[in-house]
């Protein structure tokens, strides 16, 4: 260097004195520091300080896994959605075109294959330029840039201060230099180049050459041409400034500069240069959406999966760290989703309750959610609205109708008569039979009527009202009369249900509901027995909750916690703990079989007469007709179908849904047909066996005839029956 005549000769001589103290790698560090410090400061004190700093810096680059997208997969491994802070698809060097390799080396580090990690010649040139002109040159080699990117990646992953350009201290730069030299001793040049091309930022959140090739040209990195490679290589210096979408003129000029460097380095011919310079940019921009918006289907299911990750301690100590892991940790999240079922569920929801096609009420929502009995695996979760967090509005909502409020749902929907089977299963558990006769004549329960309640004071629960009495009405006229329990459930007779509740322990009913996972969807609280109207479905529940509860009927009394994730791994091969299949025997097999006799008749006779395989279920409609249900099951799949007003909970009566204006609204004529449309298509992909047979006395729940020897359960201890009768009532087969 002393023999070279240049304006930098004296400075270089001064710096040369430092070599004996710091060595070659230290010289590079001090030169780098010189780019940031006043020239006069480069002297003995600086050298001493630099040496001390250098001794304290690590000599080994500790790499974290690259920040790569996480993928949500269906049960068969198909990609449902991608989450990323950095869109990156790591590839090996032989999957990157030679054009791209030549372009990046030509413009960023033409002596890449000659230096040992730090290029003293390049540093000197940059220092001279920066000292003698208004322009600024960088001096980092590809190895140094690789080191810096690795450090930044690790800092992001560990939520530390990031040493990006403009924020580096002298110590940061010295560390980068020392580590670059160390990296060159541990890695081959090709390994460094491969690592660099996979980690470097190209634009926005597009990192690595493979993701960049896909984003800007809709092709792989292996297919990049000379001009395409030059454009991408040119962007590295200023990813936003040379973004060809926002600045095509600047990107073109920068590309041509890279092409000139490639020509000067003789990696392209004059002919190739001329042809490339004359070409346009040839963009085919293909963005990759991040998050649940990136899913072609199953957006609401994806949202539920994301919330499951963010609320699980298995993925970090808090929601922020869990989201960071999801965005950067390269998680592979295998879910329970069956894509065939999901797409059919979305079709059925949108066709049976179209949201905007007929200019209908934009508050009409529809949900179909399917749970697999025996596992709790959620196989489908669909609704009729558009998922778009960025455009919440008339056609869009991120509210997941299928789930409870803490997991992205609303306050839930009144269950209506879908709650009644649990009163009757508890009735059986308390020693009664579905062939026993209930006195369903009583429709008035005065204030402070004492219901049995082992969890209440003195073993009773008083009816506490702000009015004189609770009047129970039936939707079908002339039904205030004695009837068998199965007949009362089949025709969904409210007075029969309340009579069954009155004749047993209310706390036994709520205990059963707790055993099958039923709680208030808005608050997460257990069903409160202090308000006996819960037996008629006054509580707000979610479709997922009810589907899981009804799956108990399909699996002989085994309740399984719903689950949406079956396995999670990351790029390091780590496995994360996820909820296992969690099932528990909560009801006797024969008790469930006895109840199913009635539920099978309801489903097959009143909902899906054209379905040939065994099904069981129950309809439901709340008092205001703002919420309609059918929850039905085969032995292999249980599906909750809900259609209702999700905005103001106003009645659906008079609304047009799917081109039909409904004067009367019942679960059997809206939610039921939607269930049959969907399940009739998908159910046979899973078992559709016969339900377990009941080996006790049974009767036809459709008829009034009573079984000989059946016990009559009367409502005693209150004023005589006060039957409700409306001669103008429309006779209906729904509640």
SSE topology:
Layout (H helix, E strand, L loop, with lengths): L8 H26 L9 H13 L13 E4 L5 E5 L14 H11 L11 H13 L9 H16 L12 H17 L2 H11 L1 E3 L2 E2 L1 H9 L8 H10 L12 H17 L5 H9 L20 H12 L8 H10 L3 E4 L3 H14 L11 E8 L6 E6 L29 E2 L5 H10 L7 E3 L4 E3 L3 E3 L7 E3 L6 E3 L10 E3 H6 L3 H9 L3 H10 L24 E2 L1 H12 L3 E3 L4 E5 L13 E3 L3 H18 L9 E6 L5 E7 L4 E8 L10 E2 L2 E2 L9 H12 L29 E2 L22
Parallel strand pairs: 1-5, 9-24
Antiparallel strand pairs: 1-2, 3-4, 5-17, 6-7, 6-21, 8-15, 9-14, 10-13, 11-12, 16-18, 19-20, 20-21, 22-23
Helix pairs in contact: 1-2, 1-4, 1-6, 3-9, 3-10, 5-6, 5-7, 9-10, 10-11, 14-21, 15-18, 15-20
Organism: Citricoccus zhacaiensis
Protein name: Carboxypeptidase
Pfam family, one: Transgly
Descriptive notes:
With 735 residues, the protein is of the alpha+beta class. Mean pLDDT is 84; it is low at 1-57 and 706-735. Helix 5 (142-157) packs across helix 7 (189-199) and helix 14 runs antiparallel to helix 21 (671-682). The protein has 21 helices and 24 strands. Strands 7-6-21-20-19 form a five-stranded antiparallel β-sheet, with helices on both faces. The protein has a four-stranded mixed β-sheet with strand order 2-1-5-17. 36% of the residues lie in helices and 13% in strands. The protein is elongated, with a radius of gyration of 36 Å.
In what range is the share of β-strand residues?
Answer: 5-15%
Task: Give the integer mean of the pLDDT values.
Answer: 84
Uncertain segments: 1-57, 706-735
Radius of gyration: 36 Å
Principal-axes geometry comes out as elongated
Distance between the termini: 96 Å
Percent range for helical residues? 25-40%
Number of helices: 21
Biased composition (Basic and acidic residues): 708-717
Protein name: Carboxypeptidase
Pfam family, one: Transgly
Domain Penicillin-binding protein transpeptidase: 367-634
């Amino acid at each position: 260097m002393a023999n070279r005549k240049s304006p930098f000769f004296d400075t270089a001589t001064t710096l040369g004195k430092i070599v004996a103290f710091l060595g070659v790698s230290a010289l590079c560090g001090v030169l780098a520091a010189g780019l940031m410090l006043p020239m006069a400061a480069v002297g003995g004190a600086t050298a001493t300080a630099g040496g001390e700093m250098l001794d304290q810096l690590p000599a080994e680059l500790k790499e974290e896994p690259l920040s790569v997208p996480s993928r949500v997969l269906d049960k068969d491994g198909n990609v449902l959605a991608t989450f990323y802070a950095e869109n990156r698809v790591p590839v090996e060097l032989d999957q990157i075109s030679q054009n791209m390799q030549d372009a990046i080396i030509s413009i960023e580090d033409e002596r890449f294959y000659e230096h040992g990690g730090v290029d003293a010649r390049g540093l000197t040139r940059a220092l001279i330029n920066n000292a003698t002109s208004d322009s600024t040159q960088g001096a980092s080699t590809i190895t140094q840039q690789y080191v810096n990117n690795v450090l930044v990646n690790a800092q992001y992953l560990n939520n530390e201060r990031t040493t990006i350009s403009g924020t580096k201290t002298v110590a940061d730069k010295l560390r980068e230099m020392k580590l670059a030299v160390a990296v060159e001793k541990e890695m081959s040049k090709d390994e460094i180049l491969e690592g660099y091309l996979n980690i470097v930022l190209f634009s926005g959140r597009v990192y690595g050459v493979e993701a960049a090739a896909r984003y800007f040209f809709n092709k792989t990195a292996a297919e990049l041409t000379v001009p395409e490679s030059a454009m991408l290589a040119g962007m590295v210096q200023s990813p936003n400034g040379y973004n060809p979408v926002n600045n095509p003129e600047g990107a073109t000029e920068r590309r041509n500069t890279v092409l000139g460097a490639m020509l000067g380095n003789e990696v392209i011919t004059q002919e190739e240069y001329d042809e490339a310079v004359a070409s346009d940019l040839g963009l085919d921009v293909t963005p990759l959406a991040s998050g649940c918006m990136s899913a072609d289907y199953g957006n609401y299911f994806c949202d539920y999966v994301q919330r499951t990750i963010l609320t699980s301690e298995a993925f970090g100590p808090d929601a922020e760290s869990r989201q960071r892991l999801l965005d950067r940790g390269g998680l592979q999240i295998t879910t329970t989703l069956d894509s065939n079922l999901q797409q059919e569920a979305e079709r059925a929801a949108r066709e049976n309750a179209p949201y905007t096609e007929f200019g209908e009420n934009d508050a009409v929502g529809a949900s179909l959610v399917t749970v697999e009995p025996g596992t709790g695996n959620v196989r489908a979760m669909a609704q009729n609205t558009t998922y778009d967090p960025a455009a919440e509005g008339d056609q869009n909502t991120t509210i997941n109708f299928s789930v409870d409020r803490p997991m992205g749902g609303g306050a839930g929907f009144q269950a209506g008569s879908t709650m009644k089977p649990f009163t009757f299963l508890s009735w059986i558990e308390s020693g009664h039979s579905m062939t026993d006769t209930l006195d369903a004549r009583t429709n008035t329960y005065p204030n402070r009527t004492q219901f049995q309640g082992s969890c209440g004071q003195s073993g009773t629960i008083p009816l506490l009202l702000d009015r004189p009495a609770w009047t129970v009405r039936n939707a079908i006229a002339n039904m205030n009369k004695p009837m068998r329990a199965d007949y009362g459930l089949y025709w969904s007779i409210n007075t029969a249900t309340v009579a069954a509740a009155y004749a047993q322990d209310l706390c036994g009913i709520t205990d059963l509901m707790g055993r099958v996972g039923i709680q208030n969807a808005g608050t997460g609280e257990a069903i409160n027995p202090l308000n006996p109207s819960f037996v008629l479905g006054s509580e707000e529940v979610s479709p997922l909750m009810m589907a899981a509860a009804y799956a108990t009927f399909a699996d002989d009394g085994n309740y399984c916690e719903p689950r949406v994730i079956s396995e999670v791994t990351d790029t390091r091969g780590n496995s994360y703990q996820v909820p296992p299949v969690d099932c528990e025997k909560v009801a006797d097999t024969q008790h469930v079989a006895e109840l199913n006799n009635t539920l099978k008749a309801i489903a097959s006779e009143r909902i899906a007469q054209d379905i040939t395989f065994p099904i069981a279920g129950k309809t439901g409609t709340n008092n205001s007709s703002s919420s309609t249900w059918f929850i039905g099951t085969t032995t292999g799949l249980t599906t909750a179908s809900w259609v209702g007003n999700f905005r103001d909970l106003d009645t659906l009566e008079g609304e047009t849904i799917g081109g039909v204006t409904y004067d009367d609204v019942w679960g059997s004529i809206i939610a039921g047909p939607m269930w049959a449309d969907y399940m009739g298509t998908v159910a046979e992909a899973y078992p559709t066996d016969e339900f377990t047979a009941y080996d006790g006395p049974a009767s036809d729940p459709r008829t009034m005839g009573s079984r000989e020897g059946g016990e009559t359960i009367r409502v005693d201890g209150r004023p005589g029956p006060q039957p409700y009768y409306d001669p103008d009532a429309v006779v209906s087969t729904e509640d």
